[in-house]
UniProtKB/TrEMBL annotation, chains A, B:
This is Nitrate reductase (NADH). Residues 275-367 form the Moybdenum cofactor oxidoreductase dimerisation domain. InterPro entries: Ig_E-set, MoCF_OxRdtse_dimer, Mopterin_OxRdtase_euk, OxRdtase_Mopterin-bd_dom, OxRdtase_Mopterin-bd_sf. It comes from the Bacteria. Residues 376-393 have a biased composition (Basic and acidic residues). Residues 57-229 form the Oxidoreductase molybdopterin-binding domain. One of its GO terms (biological process) is sulfur compound metabolic process. It comes from Streptomyces zinciresistens K42. GO terms for molecular function: heme binding; molybdenum ion binding; molybdopterin cofactor binding; sulfite oxidase activity. Its cofactor is Mo-molybdopterin. Gene3D superfamilies: 2.60.40.650, Oxidoreductase, molybdopterin-binding domain. Residues 371-405 are annotated as: Disordered.
Amino acid sequence: MGRRLADVSAPARLAAPGEGIGRDELALAARNHGLPLEAMRHDLTPPGLHYVLTHYDIPHVPDGTPWQLTLGGRVRRPLRLDPAALRDFPQVTTRVTMECAGNGRALLTPRPVSQPWLVEAVGTAEWTGAPLRLLLAEAGVAPDAVDVVFTGADHGVERGVEQDYRRALPLRVAAGGDPEVLVAYAMNGGPLPPQHGHPLRLVVPGWYGMAHVKWLREITVAAEPFTGFQQAVAYRLRSRPGDEGEPVTRIVPRALLVPPGFPDFMTRRRVLRPGPVELEGRAWSGQAPVVRVEVSTDAGRTWREAEAAADDGHRWAWRRWRHRWTARPGEHVLSARATDAAGHRQPLEQPWNRGGFANNLVQRVPVLCLDDDENGHEGDGHDENGHEGDGHEGNGGAGDGVGRA
Amino acid sequence: MGRRLADVSAPARLAAPGEGIGRDELALAARNHGLPLEAMRHDLTPPGLHYVLTHYDIPHVPDGTPWQLTLGGRVRRPLRLDPAALRDFPQVTTRVTMECAGNGRALLTPRPVSQPWLVEAVGTAEWTGAPLRLLLAEAGVAPDAVDVVFTGADHGVERGVEQDYRRALPLRVAAGGDPEVLVAYAMNGGPLPPQHGHPLRLVVPGWYGMAHVKWLREITVAAEPFTGFQQAVAYRLRSRPGDEGEPVTRIVPRALLVPPGFPDFMTRRRVLRPGPVELEGRAWSGQAPVVRVEVSTDAGRTWREAEAAADDGHRWAWRRWRHRWTARPGEHVLSARATDAAGHRQPLEQPWNRGGFANNLVQRVPVLCLDDDENGHEGDGHDENGHEGDGHEGNGGAGDGVGRA
């Protein structure tokens, strides 16, 4: 019997009711990773904490490896550019909040079987590169062009189809200035890390992560709409398997809380002590600026306006928000809800599609506020040195940014 | 009814037969992360790809936050040191392969319910700091001292016990020179990233990750053996719940392959084409240098000697190995097996304990070698530009380190 590519792939499917996360989903979760939500305290996500999703292996491109980006297809003057040549174009730096299109998938019912994100597939970085519109202008786009196709060096199989990762943007987006698409060669002022596309990647501010093609080696201007796997099969909003579906494009609004208090290791439940707590978090939308964040501390029954940080000029990055709350003993469910200037508002019921894409259901953070007199702190009897408190009196714990000195 | 810490914790347990990964395990997998195995090609793990496990939240310590490390307890001259003062001690840099004690846990039968690592919880970095033995000498350890206790700023609950993360080393290890324990303030030449212990952490070469206390703020020399949670309850090798158990200490030998070929996105199955393949990987042991690596390409029935790289003087870091193989069409299971100079050799049957610790079962990498004529590559019809091949002819694919220019 022949050995075929189809033998390694499985059809897309939904998990059965109550079905736990499978070995395949776990293997994805072990290599890709989300942003630990407490790290949303940083305006710019520290190296290594930004979410990462790679469909296949991370290409191995040691420093000094020659690399050329070609720009061809329906253009008058095909270009071949190495990373140094890209620096001859005007250099643009943009702060971008990037989110995986599948963020929230593992919380859906039924659960589409794929990378099992909870809500952490997000991160913010400053990307520096050459504006794609200037590269396209230099090459001279033919009048019949409709799509611009981007090919990465990452190679694998999906649903029986062997492929280099490849996605397209409509020409009007690729050549447009709002957002200004970048061919990026730096992240937070340094070279791209291997997992973020070293040496070159596309950055499409406001769009979900699948558009930001990593390890970029080829740009092709096409006179026909692109129908490759990642465009026509994957990353579509479908309610039934046979539907053509709508393409996944820009990020819909989402707000997330930095979970307050401290966690239980295994259950991940959050614990607080009674008293004032400053709730905080971030909110973003790729469609229009976030204009409003509301907070609920009673499982969504009532909502109050949070205080959003002043506009800092970073149109494509998340916005900080805060809300003062007084925690009383008992169980509480905390939520935040973003609305953008175009009137898009996060839903309270799950937006469901077969891929689990663009799902911005409001986050729920259950917390337990202890009784005033509860003190379960480890009495370990070795502390002859008299250290100055274990941070369990307040609600900031180790996460409050206050040094122990 | 009172709200107690015990309400947020659950007892330690084993998964039922066939039980999928639960929401709690997934939440751990989404925030902690392993090393994508293809990144073992790098001698030093690139930033952000080194494995990370944090029990609780990552403490938020913005640059410029005052930080003091105290060294007290059974000493003649208690010390208070800020990170700058540590640089007045001799500066030592050590290349260390670090592995989580729970690596491999999710592959065990039955599966202990905790952070569900497959085999990726490893990474190699160069850590720079002050030798702990010199700090202890400066403080003057009392003659009755037996343990040295290390306290981090990370705070949470485990099994109903609220605690700062705290672990001890026997005095002879803490004050010894083999390995030389470091209070580290730099990783790969730069400041520690937040998730790796910024601003200070312990580094104990050759020991599993639980010993390398992050966000280190207190060192206490004690005259009694330390009986805190992470020493006496967690990180013990137990076959039954009530056992006292043996402490988890040094890393047992393990070899891992860089999985050859390319993956299917969802199943993670590896695909190859017929022909020569250079298998490669890394091997390490915290007990003694790795002296032998064997490779099997027939599911462990036969073994051949791999070619191990020459000793590079980095005693505490992994060793590279290679093995030439000719892939023929069909299904194969690849394995590698390490033996160290003390005669420890990886087992072919799972070493099982209730915590899933120090489990170095030989890795199994199933691969499918296609028939010669199989070509399922996406024909996407847009490639007027004539790019130079999609890397699907060989077995290196995008991971072979060869540029596309």
